Amino acid sequence: MAQLIDGKTFAANLRRTIAGQVAQLNRGHGITPGLAVVLVGNDPASEVYVRNKGRQTIEVGMQSFEHRLPQNTDEAQVLDLVARLNADPNVHGILVQLPLPDQINSAHVLAAIDPKKDVDGFHVINAGLLATGGKGLVPCTPLGCMMMLHDHLGDLSGLDAVVVGRSNIVGKPLAHLLLAANCTVTIAHSRSRDLPDICRKADILVAAVGRPRMIKGDWIKPGATVIDVGINRIPAPEKGEGKSRLVGDVDLASAQKHAGAITPVPGGVGPMTIACLLANTLTATCRIHGLDPSDLDAR
Ligand code: GUN
Fold it and tell me: Where, residue-wise, is CATH 3.40.50.10860 in the chain?
Protein backbone atom coordinates (compact mmCIF):
# COMPACT_ATOMS: atom_id res chain seq x y z
CA MET A 1 0.00 0.00 0.00
CA ALA A 2 1.20 3.46 -0.89
CA GLN A 3 2.19 5.91 1.79
CA LEU A 4 -0.29 8.82 2.03
CA ILE A 5 1.43 12.20 1.88
CA ASP A 6 -0.25 14.34 4.53
CA GLY A 7 -0.66 17.84 3.07
CA LYS A 8 -2.68 19.05 6.02
CA THR A 9 0.17 18.51 8.49
CA PHE A 10 2.75 19.76 5.98
CA ALA A 11 0.76 22.97 5.44
CA ALA A 12 0.29 23.49 9.19
CA ASN A 13 4.07 23.17 9.71
CA LEU A 14 4.74 25.59 6.86
CA ARG A 15 2.32 28.13 8.33
CA ARG A 16 4.08 27.81 11.71
CA THR A 17 7.44 28.53 10.05
CA ILE A 18 5.94 31.52 8.20
CA ALA A 19 4.43 32.88 11.43
CA GLY A 20 7.90 32.79 13.02
CA GLN A 21 9.40 34.61 10.02
CA VAL A 22 6.65 37.24 10.06
CA ALA A 23 7.39 37.87 13.75
CA GLN A 24 11.09 38.18 12.94
CA LEU A 25 10.40 40.67 10.13
CA ASN A 26 8.26 42.64 12.50
CA ARG A 27 10.79 42.67 15.35
CA GLY A 28 13.85 43.26 13.24
CA HIS A 29 12.52 45.67 10.63
CA GLY A 30 9.12 46.95 11.81
CA ILE A 31 7.45 45.45 8.73
CA THR A 32 4.09 43.63 8.72
CA PRO A 33 3.36 41.81 5.45
CA GLY A 34 -0.05 42.72 4.00
CA LEU A 35 -2.14 40.60 1.62
CA ALA A 36 -5.08 42.10 -0.30
CA VAL A 37 -7.72 39.78 -1.72
CA VAL A 38 -10.28 41.04 -4.22
CA LEU A 39 -13.54 39.13 -4.61
CA VAL A 40 -16.03 40.23 -7.26
CA GLY A 41 -19.53 38.76 -6.95
CA ASN A 42 -20.70 35.97 -4.68
CA ASP A 43 -19.64 32.63 -6.12
CA PRO A 44 -20.06 30.29 -3.09
CA ALA A 45 -16.79 28.36 -3.67
CA SER A 46 -14.86 31.63 -4.00
CA GLU A 47 -16.47 32.92 -0.79
CA VAL A 48 -15.12 29.87 1.07
CA TYR A 49 -11.60 30.29 -0.39
CA VAL A 50 -11.52 33.98 0.45
CA ARG A 51 -12.73 33.43 4.01
CA ASN A 52 -10.06 30.75 4.59
CA LYS A 53 -7.36 32.96 3.08
CA GLY A 54 -8.33 35.87 5.33
CA ARG A 55 -8.33 33.74 8.48
CA GLN A 56 -4.99 32.07 7.77
CA THR A 57 -3.38 35.39 6.79
CA ILE A 58 -4.25 36.83 10.20
CA GLU A 59 -3.20 33.64 12.01
CA VAL A 60 0.39 33.98 10.72
CA GLY A 61 0.51 37.62 11.84
CA MET A 62 0.04 39.32 8.47
CA GLN A 63 -2.45 42.07 7.66
CA SER A 64 -5.44 40.95 5.60
CA PHE A 65 -7.29 43.40 3.36
CA GLU A 66 -10.49 42.07 1.84
CA HIS A 67 -12.22 43.95 -0.98
CA ARG A 68 -15.65 42.65 -1.93
CA LEU A 69 -17.25 44.13 -5.02
CA PRO A 70 -20.76 43.45 -6.36
CA GLN A 71 -21.40 41.00 -9.22
CA ASN A 72 -22.19 43.86 -11.68
CA THR A 73 -18.85 45.66 -11.11
CA ASP A 74 -17.26 46.71 -14.41
CA GLU A 75 -13.66 46.17 -15.48
CA ALA A 76 -12.65 49.81 -14.98
CA GLN A 77 -13.68 49.65 -11.33
CA VAL A 78 -11.57 46.53 -10.72
CA LEU A 79 -8.61 48.09 -12.55
CA ASP A 80 -9.00 51.22 -10.41
CA LEU A 81 -8.91 49.14 -7.21
CA VAL A 82 -5.85 47.19 -8.43
CA ALA A 83 -4.07 50.51 -9.16
CA ARG A 84 -4.78 51.69 -5.60
CA LEU A 85 -3.49 48.39 -4.14
CA ASN A 86 -0.35 48.60 -6.32
CA ALA A 87 0.34 52.05 -4.83
CA ASP A 88 -0.45 51.12 -1.20
CA PRO A 89 2.77 50.57 0.81
CA ASN A 90 0.93 48.41 3.37
CA VAL A 91 -0.04 45.93 0.65
CA HIS A 92 2.73 43.51 -0.39
CA GLY A 93 0.58 40.88 -2.08
CA ILE A 94 -2.50 41.20 -4.31
CA LEU A 95 -4.77 38.31 -5.25
CA VAL A 96 -7.81 38.77 -7.46
CA GLN A 97 -10.03 35.74 -6.94
CA LEU A 98 -10.88 33.88 -10.15
CA PRO A 99 -13.20 33.30 -11.91
CA LEU A 100 -14.30 36.91 -12.49
CA PRO A 101 -17.80 37.74 -13.80
CA ASP A 102 -18.15 37.59 -17.61
CA GLN A 103 -18.11 41.37 -18.19
CA ILE A 104 -14.53 41.54 -16.82
CA ASN A 105 -11.55 40.36 -18.86
CA SER A 106 -9.34 38.41 -16.41
CA ALA A 107 -6.23 38.86 -18.57
CA HIS A 108 -6.58 42.66 -18.37
CA VAL A 109 -6.92 42.53 -14.60
CA LEU A 110 -4.01 40.11 -14.07
CA ALA A 111 -1.81 42.26 -16.32
CA ALA A 112 -2.58 45.31 -14.19
CA ILE A 113 -1.20 43.81 -10.96
CA ASP A 114 2.32 44.96 -10.07
CA PRO A 115 4.40 41.80 -10.79
CA LYS A 116 6.28 42.35 -7.50
CA LYS A 117 2.94 42.01 -5.64
CA ASP A 118 1.56 39.21 -7.85
CA VAL A 119 1.47 36.50 -5.16
CA ASP A 120 -0.56 34.21 -7.45
CA GLY A 121 2.32 34.27 -9.95
CA PHE A 122 -0.17 34.64 -12.83
CA HIS A 123 1.26 37.83 -14.42
CA VAL A 124 2.99 37.20 -17.77
CA ILE A 125 6.18 38.71 -16.33
CA ASN A 126 6.23 36.07 -13.58
CA ALA A 127 5.27 33.30 -16.02
CA GLY A 128 8.12 34.47 -18.28
CA LEU A 129 10.62 34.63 -15.42
CA LEU A 130 9.70 31.07 -14.43
CA ALA A 131 10.10 29.86 -18.02
CA THR A 132 13.51 31.53 -18.37
CA GLY A 133 14.95 30.62 -14.97
CA GLY A 134 14.53 34.09 -13.44
CA LYS A 135 13.51 35.05 -9.92
CA GLY A 136 9.83 35.94 -9.94
CA LEU A 137 6.83 34.76 -7.94
CA VAL A 138 5.72 31.18 -8.59
CA PRO A 139 2.05 30.03 -8.65
CA CYS A 140 1.01 28.63 -5.27
CA THR A 141 -0.27 25.15 -6.13
CA PRO A 142 2.82 24.14 -8.18
CA LEU A 143 5.02 25.55 -5.42
CA GLY A 144 3.20 23.36 -2.88
CA CYS A 145 3.59 20.30 -5.11
CA MET A 146 7.36 20.88 -5.36
CA MET A 147 7.71 21.28 -1.59
CA MET A 148 5.96 17.95 -1.02
CA LEU A 149 8.03 16.21 -3.72
CA HIS A 150 11.32 17.50 -2.30
CA ASP A 151 10.24 16.54 1.20
CA HIS A 152 9.36 13.03 0.10
CA LEU A 153 12.07 12.30 -2.49
CA GLY A 154 14.89 14.74 -1.74
CA ASP A 155 16.85 15.38 -4.93
CA LEU A 156 14.68 14.93 -8.05
CA SER A 157 17.57 14.92 -10.56
CA GLY A 158 17.15 12.55 -13.48
CA LEU A 159 13.66 11.37 -12.54
CA ASP A 160 10.97 10.99 -15.20
CA ALA A 161 8.10 13.34 -14.41
CA VAL A 162 4.78 13.29 -16.23
CA VAL A 163 2.38 16.19 -15.72
CA VAL A 164 -1.14 15.44 -16.92
CA GLY A 165 -2.73 18.85 -17.51
CA ARG A 166 -1.57 21.99 -19.29
CA SER A 167 -3.25 24.88 -17.48
CA ASN A 168 -1.44 28.17 -16.89
CA ILE A 169 -2.22 27.82 -13.17
CA VAL A 170 -0.82 24.32 -12.53
CA GLY A 171 0.37 22.17 -15.46
CA LYS A 172 2.66 24.58 -17.29
CA PRO A 173 4.32 26.23 -14.27
CA LEU A 174 4.79 22.86 -12.55
CA ALA A 175 6.47 21.46 -15.67
CA HIS A 176 8.95 24.37 -15.56
CA LEU A 177 9.65 23.80 -11.86
CA LEU A 178 10.26 20.07 -12.42
CA LEU A 179 12.56 20.88 -15.33
CA ALA A 180 14.48 23.34 -13.15
CA ALA A 181 14.83 20.49 -10.61
CA ASN A 182 16.50 18.39 -13.33
CA CYS A 183 13.60 16.04 -14.06
CA THR A 184 12.91 14.77 -17.56
CA VAL A 185 9.48 16.28 -18.07
CA THR A 186 6.55 15.22 -20.23
CA ILE A 187 3.40 17.34 -20.38
CA ALA A 188 0.39 15.23 -21.31
CA HIS A 189 -3.30 16.13 -21.35
CA SER A 190 -6.78 14.77 -21.95
CA ARG A 191 -6.14 14.50 -25.71
CA SER A 192 -2.76 12.78 -25.48
CA ARG A 193 -2.57 9.49 -27.33
CA ASP A 194 -1.82 6.44 -25.15
CA LEU A 195 -2.14 8.42 -21.95
CA PRO A 196 -1.95 5.28 -19.74
CA ASP A 197 1.37 4.32 -21.38
CA ILE A 198 2.78 7.83 -20.94
CA CYS A 199 1.81 7.75 -17.26
CA ARG A 200 3.41 4.31 -16.74
CA LYS A 201 6.84 5.82 -17.49
CA ALA A 202 6.59 8.32 -14.66
CA ASP A 203 8.65 8.19 -11.47
CA ILE A 204 6.68 11.33 -10.55
CA LEU A 205 3.11 11.50 -11.84
CA VAL A 206 1.15 14.73 -11.41
CA ALA A 207 -2.57 14.74 -12.18
CA ALA A 208 -4.04 18.17 -12.90
CA VAL A 209 -6.69 17.60 -15.56
CA GLY A 210 -9.90 18.25 -13.61
CA ARG A 211 -11.53 14.91 -14.45
CA PRO A 212 -12.73 12.89 -11.48
CA ARG A 213 -10.74 9.65 -10.91
CA MET A 214 -9.52 9.55 -14.51
CA ILE A 215 -6.09 8.09 -13.69
CA LYS A 216 -6.32 4.43 -12.72
CA GLY A 217 -4.02 2.31 -10.59
CA ASP A 218 -2.68 0.27 -13.52
CA TRP A 219 -1.47 3.51 -15.20
CA ILE A 220 1.01 3.95 -12.35
CA LYS A 221 4.56 2.63 -12.35
CA PRO A 222 5.13 0.48 -9.22
CA GLY A 223 6.58 2.67 -6.47
CA ALA A 224 5.96 5.99 -8.27
CA THR A 225 5.19 9.19 -6.36
CA VAL A 226 1.76 10.50 -7.34
CA ILE A 227 0.61 14.07 -6.77
CA ASP A 228 -3.13 14.56 -7.26
CA VAL A 229 -4.01 18.21 -7.83
CA GLY A 230 -7.63 17.55 -8.85
CA ILE A 231 -10.49 18.72 -6.66
CA ASN A 232 -13.74 17.42 -8.14
CA ARG A 233 -17.12 17.41 -6.44
CA ILE A 234 -19.16 14.32 -7.30
CA PRO A 235 -22.59 13.14 -6.16
CA ALA A 236 -22.46 10.87 -3.09
CA PRO A 237 -25.93 9.32 -2.73
CA GLU A 238 -24.48 6.87 -0.18
CA LYS A 239 -24.15 9.87 2.19
CA GLY A 240 -27.78 10.82 1.68
CA GLU A 241 -29.92 12.46 -0.95
CA GLY A 242 -28.36 15.49 -2.64
CA LYS A 243 -25.00 14.97 -0.85
CA SER A 244 -21.64 15.25 -2.58
CA ARG A 245 -17.99 14.58 -1.85
CA LEU A 246 -14.56 15.58 -3.13
CA VAL A 247 -12.40 13.26 -5.24
CA GLY A 248 -9.16 13.82 -7.11
CA ASP A 249 -8.14 13.19 -10.72
CA VAL A 250 -6.63 9.88 -9.55
CA ASP A 251 -8.65 6.84 -8.58
CA LEU A 252 -7.19 6.69 -5.07
CA ALA A 253 -8.30 3.16 -4.14
CA SER A 254 -6.64 1.48 -7.14
CA ALA A 255 -3.68 3.91 -7.20
CA GLN A 256 -2.73 3.02 -3.64
CA LYS A 257 -2.00 -0.54 -4.75
CA HIS A 258 0.67 0.62 -7.24
CA ALA A 259 2.14 3.94 -6.08
CA GLY A 260 4.94 4.27 -3.54
CA ALA A 261 3.36 7.43 -2.18
CA ILE A 262 0.32 9.51 -3.08
CA THR A 263 -1.35 12.73 -1.98
CA PRO A 264 -4.98 12.05 -1.00
CA VAL A 265 -7.97 14.22 -1.92
CA PRO A 266 -9.00 15.89 0.27
CA GLY A 267 -6.02 16.54 2.56
CA GLY A 268 -3.15 16.44 0.05
CA VAL A 269 -2.25 19.32 -2.26
CA GLY A 270 -5.31 21.45 -1.35
CA PRO A 271 -4.15 22.69 2.07
CA MET A 272 -0.72 23.56 0.63
CA THR A 273 -2.10 26.20 -1.75
CA ILE A 274 -3.02 28.83 0.86
CA ALA A 275 0.13 28.06 2.88
CA CYS A 276 2.17 28.78 -0.29
CA LEU A 277 0.18 31.97 -0.88
CA LEU A 278 1.36 33.12 2.55
CA ALA A 279 4.92 32.02 1.69
CA ASN A 280 4.72 34.09 -1.51
CA THR A 281 3.41 37.10 0.41
CA LEU A 282 6.40 36.84 2.76
CA THR A 283 8.78 36.55 -0.21
CA ALA A 284 7.16 39.56 -1.93
CA THR A 285 7.38 41.62 1.27
CA CYS A 286 11.09 40.87 1.70
CA ARG A 287 11.93 41.68 -1.92
CA ILE A 288 9.92 44.93 -1.91
CA HIS A 289 11.95 46.01 1.15
CA GLY A 290 15.27 44.90 -0.35
CA LEU A 291 15.66 41.99 2.10
CA ASP A 292 16.66 38.44 1.25
CA PRO A 293 13.88 36.01 2.30
CA SER A 294 16.45 33.24 2.76
CA ASP A 295 18.06 35.30 5.56
CA LEU A 296 14.98 34.69 7.71
CA ASP A 297 15.12 31.89 10.24
CA ALA A 298 13.57 28.73 8.79
CA ARG A 299 12.67 27.21 12.16
N1 GUN B 1 -9.70 30.54 -7.72
C2 GUN B 1 -9.49 29.26 -7.30
N3 GUN B 1 -8.21 29.10 -6.91
C4 GUN B 1 -7.59 30.28 -7.11
C5 GUN B 1 -6.27 30.73 -6.88
O6 GUN B 1 -5.37 30.00 -6.44
N7 GUN B 1 -6.02 32.03 -7.18
C8 GUN B 1 -6.98 32.86 -7.66
N9 GUN B 1 -6.65 34.12 -7.93
N10 GUN B 1 -8.22 32.48 -7.89
C11 GUN B 1 -8.53 31.19 -7.60
Answer: 30-115
How close are the terminal C-alpha atoms of the chain, in Å?
A: 32
CATH of domain 140-271: 3.40.50.720
Rounded-to-integer distance, Cα 282 and Cα 278, Å: 6
Q: Is 220 annotated as a binding residue?
A: no
pLDDT digits (tens, 9 = 90+) for 173-209: 999 999 999 999 999 998 999 999 999 999 999 999 9
Question: What amino acid occupies position 69?
Answer: L
Alpha carbon of 197 to ligand 1 centroid (Å): 32
Active site includes 120? yes
- Which one from 21, 56, 118, 120 is the annotated catalytic residue? 120
Alpha carbon 116 to its chain centroid, in Å, reads 18
**pTM to 2 decimals?**
0.97
Give the right CATH number for 30-115 from 3.30.43.10, 3.90.800.10, 3.40.50.2300, 3.40.50.10860. 3.40.50.10860
Residues 6 or more apart whose CB falls under 8 angstroms from that of 60 comprise 15, 18, 19, 22, 278
- Is 167 among the annotated ligand-binding positions? yes
Q: Give the Å distance between the CA of 218 and the centre of ligand 1.
A: 32
Q: Say if ligand 1 is within 6 A of residue 159 CB.
A: no
